[in-house]
Structures are given as C-alpha cells and as structure tokens.
Amino acid sequence: MSDSNSPQTQLQTPPPEGTGNLKTSTKRQELLKWQIRIFALSWLAYAAFYFPRSAFSAAKVGVLDEGFLSRQTLGLLDSVYLAAYAAGQFIWGACAEKYGTRVVVAGGMIMAGAASLLMGIVPAVALFLPLMIAQGLAQSTGWAALSKNIASFFTISKRGRAMGFFSTSYAFGGLAGAPVTGWVAYSLFDSWRWAFIAGTAVIAFAFVLFIIFQRNSPQEVGLPGIDEDPSLLDHAHDGGTKPAPTTAAKAKFSLRDLLAAVRYEPMVLRLGLVYFLIKPARYAILLWGPVLVLEAMPNLSAMTAIMVPVAFGVTGMVAPVAAGWMSDTVFGARRVPPSVLCLSLMVVALALWQVITQTGSLPLIVALLAFIGLTAYASDAMISGVAAVDFGTSRYAAGATGFVNGCGSIGAILGGLLPGFFSGIVIFYNFAGAALVAAVILVPSWNKRPISA
Questions:
Q1: 102 pairs with which residues across the strands?
Q2: What pLDDT, on a 0 to 100 scale, did the predictor assign at position 244?
Q3: Mean pLDDT of 7-23
C-alpha cells in the first residue's frame, strides 16, 4: 500500500509554485501591515499627549472661580510651559534622530503623566511652576519623533495624505482633551483637580500600547528602508523580524548638530519663521478658549464655555486631511500652495472675531470658531507636518520637524501669555496680521519641492 498520502509525505512535499501558499506574502504586503500599525500607534500616542496638556485649560475655569490663581498668573504659567515646550522641540528632534522614536516618546509620555498627576494632588501653588516646565518638556517629545516614525514608513508620494491624517491626532486631542477632562472634573467630582488626574489616566493607557507594539523603522522588522529600491518590496517575506542591514546610523546626529536640517535645506528655516507667526492663534484658543468665550458671553455656565470651543477642534479634524490630499493630488506634492491658500482664509477668519462676538449670538460664535479651526489646523498641519517632513526628507525628518515646531512654539508662548493681559478682540486682530505676513513670506516658494521629490 502506497504511503504517498501519509501526513509525513504531505508535509515534506512543497506546494507547486503559484498555487497560493497562504503563509507566503511579499515584503510589500508586510509593509502595508506595519504602515497601518505604526500610523495607528502614532496617532493614538499624539492624541493622548493632549489630555494632560488640555487638563490645564479645563481646570482654569474652576481655578479662577475658586480664586486659587489670578488670570495673569495663569497666563504666566502658560508662557513658562510654552517656553519649555519650545526648547524641548529643538532638543527632542535631535534626540529622536540619535536614539529613535521609541525612547523619546515613551519617556515623554511617562513625564507628562507624572507631571499632570502631581498637579492634581499637590496643594502648594509654588509647585505649579516646575510642574508646568516638566509638562512642557514632556509634551515636546511627541510631534517631531512621531513625524519621524511616519516618514520612516511612508514614501514622499503618499506622505501628504499620511501626515494629513496623522495631523488629525492633535486636532482630536485639542477637541476632546478639555471637554473630557472638564467633564470628569466638574460633572463627576466637582473639583478642577480631577481634570489633571483624568489626563494622566488617558496617557497611561496609550503608553502601554505604544511601548508594546511600536517600532522605529521598517529595517527593525526585516523590511527594506522606505527610500531603498522599491523592487525589493516585491520579494517574498520570510516571516521573520530579524533587522535587515541598514545605514541609518549615518542619518543620526548629536545635540551639537541641532541645525543640521536647516543646513541641509534652507526652506526649513523659512517654514520655521512662518510657523512662529501662525502658531499663537491656535494655542490661544486651545489654552484660553473657554475664558475667551466667557469674555464674549459672561452669562454662560462653565461647562457650556468649555464645550463651545469644541467647534474649533471638530473642523480641525477635517482640515489636515483635506489639505494633505490636496497637496498630494491637486498640487503634485507641492506643500506651499495649499499653505498659502489656508493662511489667506485664516486672516479673514481671525479678523471676524470682533464682528461676530458683538452680535451676542452663540450659534454665530460657534460657527466662527469652526471656521477658524478649519483654516488654522489646515495651515498648521501643512507647515509643521507635511512640509517640515518633506523638506527635511526621511534623513532629517525629526530634526526638521523639531526645528520648525520649536520656532512655532516660541511664537506660541504669546498665545498662552497675551490672553492673560489683553481682550480677545485685541489678540485676534494681531493674530490676523501675523497670518497675513506668514502668507506673504511663503508666496515666493509657491513652486518649490523637496530635493528628493
């Protein structure tokens, strides 16, 4: 009796070529799986950063009502936080190039959660200052390093859409952070301190997922680098995760090389200047939105004032995706044209604040904040995300993004400071003027593309 059908014989006989062995896949298919995974983890991680960050915005309403701190002191604390945030952007971008995304982001998440928790439980006002500095340094670990992660897994032809969708992470964080932490604080526990504790809980959850599942580059999972010969992706994937040979060490630089991305591509410097001019507007609304709404409509409840700026974040979820898609398709991977168009609309949106708030109409104020969010987030995502990564290229993606965001964060200090001393009408007119100057600066670079495009 023949044993040709025995289990042992069947296991030893390889299937005919082309019969579709279900266990065989190409490196391209494997890369797609990792692109989905890395995108999801990066999105979740950066959205989570916004919960301990936004907790202070939600807590301000209770802090002012309780008389725990003055409005001017809150403005100064915001400026200290943003100064630390700006310094961190320059530093952590370089560190992400040297040590990788995993180390930098995981460390920042731990620091952000710890600082937020302590702000919710410490009784001494004096401790708020060092904790705000710690929170600023922690928050600045996220964007540059995670943008590097996206750039490492997505080619330049798809990066506009990838970064556009990734930019919705901070739109969502800004949208949900204050309402969620505010709801926990005022509706569940009736204490502003619980806003900080809620922020810690969210980022702790994201940290666990990130530290388990994240990887820095395709090479770490046995795939070719994103800038290598695309035909390598058509080879069969052996199912292993042994790192392939890589020259990534050549792209790493020490902290003394913070300006390497600017030397490599001068456009990075121009983007930094533009971002310095436009970031204060978004941060003023993120950090002071509820207070600015109460200033316009004093009869609103604290929870209503917290919920109104949600409109700013809702449209901010859509704007980066639309701008990223437009830059990839309509403008052929050119990032400047959609940036200039969005900045022009942003000027109009900001200049309308006095006109709309004087009507005393809550629906109109909500609609205006939605319009501002649409224009602000679109221009913000293009300049600080897609354009910064593209002009830095995968070689200096974190360094370029860190530099551009560091410049923007220096400007954002004004977004945290000025609302503590001036009315919303004054600051919005000034922000409109700054956005106009930013648009003018970018116009000469209308057709400029990255070196590798």
A1: none
A2: 46
A3: 46
Q: Residue 425 and residue 284: Cα distance in Å, rounded?
A: 12
Q: What is the mean pLDDT of residues 369-375?
A: 91
264-268's contacts with Cβ under 8 Å and 24+ in sequence apart are 264/392, 264/393, 264/395, 264/396, 264/400, 265/391, 265/392, 265/393, 265/396, 265/400, 265/450, 265/451, 267/391, 267/445, 267/448, 268/388, 268/391, 268/392, 268/400, 268/403, 268/404
**Of 26-35, 89-98, 131-140, 409-418, where does the model show the most confidence?**
131-140
- Higher pLDDT residue, 58 or 231? 58
C-alpha dihedral, 81 to 295 to 379 to 44, nearest 10°? 60
- pLDDT at residue 107 in the model: 94
Query: What pLDDT does 266 receive?
Result: 77
* Residue-wise burial string across 123-147, b where 16 or more C-beta atoms lie within 10 A, e elsewhere: eeeeebeebbbbbbbbbbbbbbbbb
Reported pTM: 0.71
Q: Which residue has the tokens 């970031």?
A: 279
For 24-104, list the strands marked E by DSSP. Answer: 25-26
Quote the CA–CA distance of 223 and 232 in Å, as a whole number. 9
Helical H runs in 330-423? 336-351, 353-357, 362-381, 388-392, 397-417
Whether residue 360 contacts residue 352, with contact meaning beta carbons closer than 8 Å, is answered with no
How far is it, in rounded angstroms, from Cα 307 to Cα 197?
20
- Residues 163, 168, 170: CA angle, nearest 5 degrees: 105
235 and 26 in contact (C-beta within 8 Å)? yes
Q: Which of 37-51, 243-257, 412-426 has the lowest mean pLDDT?
A: 243-257
Nearest to 224 by CA among 37, 451, 34, 20: 34
The residues facing 236 across adjacent strands are: 26
**What's the CA gap between 388 and 399, in Å, rounded?**
9
Neighbours of 79 (CB within 10 A): 19
Closest to 424 (Cα-Cα) out of 304, 293, 316, 307: 293
Measured distance CA(358)–CA(179) in Å, rounded = 25
